[in-house]
Specification:
There is one protein chain. By secondary structure, the protein is α/β, with parallel strands linked by helices. It has helices at about 20-35, 35-45, 50-60, 75-85, 100, 140-150, 170-190, 195-205, 210-220, and strands at about 65-70, 90-95, 110-115, 125-135, 155-165, 225-230, 235-240. The chain has a 7-stranded mixed β-sheet, with helices on both faces. Helix 6 links the parallel strand 4 (about 125-135) and strand 5. The longest helix is centred in the last third of the chain and has 23 residues, at about 170-190. The radius of gyration is 17 Å and the shape is globular.
Length: about 240
C-alpha cells in the first residue's frame, strides 16, 4: 500500500502560523496524498468516515435546494452524497488542489472547480447549502472562511461541516493531540513512507479552536450552530449551521 515515491512533506513548523503559509502547505500536502487519500481515510477513521459523511448530509434540513457548494471537496465523496440526495440540484465541488478533484467521480449536475474556500468566486446569497468534510480545520483563515460561507448562503441557508473536535480541557486536548500524532504517523509511514504526511492531523487539530470557541465564532458570524453531533467519543463532530 505504500507510495512508490518518497514523500517530500516535512514535519509542520511555522507552516500553520499564517493564512498564506497554511494555504501553501495544504496545497503541497494534498497534491502529495491525492492518489492515496481514498485508501488511507477509511483506515484513519476506523472505517467510519463514510457513515459520518452520510449522517452529515442526512442532517441538513433543506427539502429542495437548488444550489449546493461542497468546499474543500477533495475526491468528491460528500459531493456525490449530495447528488444522490438531491439529484436535480446544481452542485459545485470546490477544492484548492487540482490533483484531488481529478480523482472525483462525475455525475449529472455536478461541477468541480478550483477555488480557495476563503474566496469562492460565487455570487452573494446564491447557495442553499454549503458543506465541508474536514474543511474548517484546514481553513487558512477560519474566520474569513466562515464569513465567506455566510456571504454565499441565502437567508435561512444551511452550512454542514464534519471535522475534528478540539476539547477546551487542556488534559483531554493533549491526549487528543498524541492520539492523532501516533495514529496519523503510522499511516503516513504505511502509505507514503513518511510519518509527517498524516502526522499533520495532530498539528492542524492543535491549532483548531476548541469546540466551545468554534460555536462562539459561528454565532459572531451570524451562522450559529443549530445541530451538533458527536462522533468517535467526541473526537469528531458534525455541525449544522443556519444563516440568520
Amino acid at each position: 500500500m505504500a507510495s512508490q515515491n518518497d514523500s517530500h512533506i516535512d514535519w509542520v513548523g511555522s507552516e500553520l502560523d499564517t493564512p498564506l503559509a497554511k494555504r501553501d502547505y495544504n496545497r503541497k500536502l494534498f497534491v502529495e496524498v491525492s492518489l492515496t487519500y481514498d485508501k488511507a481515510t477509511p483506515w484513519l477513521s476506523f472505517f467510519r468516515d463514510k457513515a459520518w459523511k452520510k449522517k452529515l448530509v442526512s442532517l441538513v434540513g433543506k427539502a429542495d435546494p437548488r444550489v449546493v457548494v461542497d468546499i474543500a471537496c477533495g475526491t468528491g465523496d460528500i459531493t456525490l452524497l449530495l447528488h444522490n440526495r438531491w439529484p436535480m440540484c446544481k452542485i459545485w465541488g470546490t477544492d484548492l488542489t487540482r490533483e484531488m478533484i481529478t480523482q472525483a467521480p462525475s455525475a449529472p449536475g455536478v461541477t468541480y472547480c478550483l477555488a480557495d474556500m476563503q474566496k469562492l468566486g460565487i455570487a452573494t446569497a446564491s447557495c442553499d447549502i454549503v458543506t465541508g468534510g474536514y474543511a474548517l480545520r484546514n481553513a487558512p483563515d477560519l474566520q474569513q472562511t466562515l464569513r465567506e460561507v455566510y456571504r454565499v448562503l441565502k437567508p435561512g441557508g444551511f452550512g454542514a461541516f464534519l471535522d475534528f473536535s478540539h476539547s477546551s480541557n487542556w488534559f483531554i486536548a493533549l491526549g487528543q493531540y498524541f492520539i492523532l500524532k501516533v495514529w496519523g504517523s503510522i499511516f503516513g509511514l504505511v502509505f507514503h513512507r513518511n510519518a509527517a504526511v498524516y502526522g499533520y492531523l495532530a498539528d492542524s487539530h492543535r491549532k483548531f479552536p476548541a469546540t466551545v470557541h468554534l460555536r462562539t465564532l459561528c454565532g459572531q458570524e451570524k451562522i450559529p450552530v443549530i445541530i451538533e453531533k458527536r462522533c468517535m467519543m467526541g473526537l469528531l463532530r458534525i455541525w449544522i449551521l443556519c444563516k440568520q
